[in-house]
Write a structure and sequence with these properties.
The chain is globular, with a radius of gyration of 19 Å. It is 76% helix and 0% strand. The protein has one domain.
Length: 289
């Protein structure tokens, strides 16, 4: 469910081009998400306030890096780079999560997990290349690709950083992280305005803001937090390879693109790779606690 809604974030982010600028979109979605979660999180926030206060810097930082930095760089990248490049580079998030967890915390990785990741990542590449791997030789990296690589790094750091999340209710977590995201989005929005690049939303832009605020911002992040709690960052990160697959499917539904045979093969590879990696996970199951 997390990656399905994130696939929608990528599709709607591309739809936003020309209708709302990256930082207007980023700040707007997190202000709206903050308002929604705050309206329903009163009891949890009061109960968790002592822990929130002691860990406020961590919670605000997670929101700033995982929510604002990732989405701000993602939406900015989509102004310059292709969907093919974007899908491939987002597939690098699980790689970075594996590497960061091993380098920083010596989280074990089995050979079967690595094999499962490789199979799953090949499914991502197959999706991104539209079934023609020869197109990969023609890819050119540009400014947008550089921005997207920073976005990938930001979300990998966020995922690994969830190990320091205090033991608070998910509503409290989302409220604090959304506040951090909203605060962090203000300076780049001011810069966007100063550069005369701000685009205030039209009716399509408003629709994109509403979707991203409710589904990728709240529902997906809540599910992702619970997922990382349950199976650990390495295993949860591997599921991110489903984002381009779901993004392709949503493009078919939303934009009338054709569903090709390679889409089905890619889906089998991605899900199969995840299943193999799950089967080969280290024992005992590693957690983020």
């Amino acid at each position: 469910m997390t990656t399905l809604l994130w696939g929608g974030n990528a599709a709607f982010g591309k739809m936003a081009v020309g209708h709302v600028s990256p930082m207007v979109l980023t700040l707007s979605r997190w202000i709206l998400a903050l308002a929604i979660i705050s309206a329903i999180a009163g009891p949890q926030l009061r109960r968790d306030w002592p822990l929130i206060r002691r860990n406020l810097h961590i919670l605000l930082g997670l929101g700033a890096v995982g929510y604002t930095a990732f989405n701000g760089f993602l939406y900015s990248a989509l102004q310059y780079t292709t969907g093919v490049n974007g899908a491939i580079e987002q597939g690098g998030i699980p790689v970075l999560i594996f590497v960061l967890n091993f380098v920083l915390f010596r989280v074990p990785v089995t050979a079967v997990q690595i094999a499962g990741f490789a199979i799953s990542f090949f499914g991502v590449v197959l999706t991104a290349s539209h079934g023609d791997l020869a197109t990969l030789a023609q890819l050119n990296l540009n400014y947008g690709d550089a921005l997207l690589l920073v976005a990938v790094l930001a979300y990998a750091l966020y995922t690994v950083g969830l190990r320091w999340k205090p033991a608070i209710h998910w509503k409290s977590m989302m409220a604090a992280a959304s506040l951090g995201a909203a605060i962090a989005a203000v300076p780049p929005l001011l810069y966007e305005i100063a550069q005369a690049k701000a685009i205030w939303p039209d009716h399509i832009g408003i629709g994109v803001i509403l979707y991203t605020a409710i589904f990728p911002s709240l529902v997906s992040q809540i599910l992702y937090i619970k997922g990382v709690e349950g199976i650990g960052a390495n295993r949860a990160g591997l599921f991110i390879n489903l984002v381009p697959v779901f993004g392709t499917g949503l493009s078919v539904l939303l934009n009338g693109e054709r569903l090709e045979p390679f889409h089905f093969l890619a889906l089998v590879l991605v899900i199969g790779g995840i299943a193999i990696s799950e089967w080969g996970k280290p024992r005992p199951v590693e957690t983020i606690q």
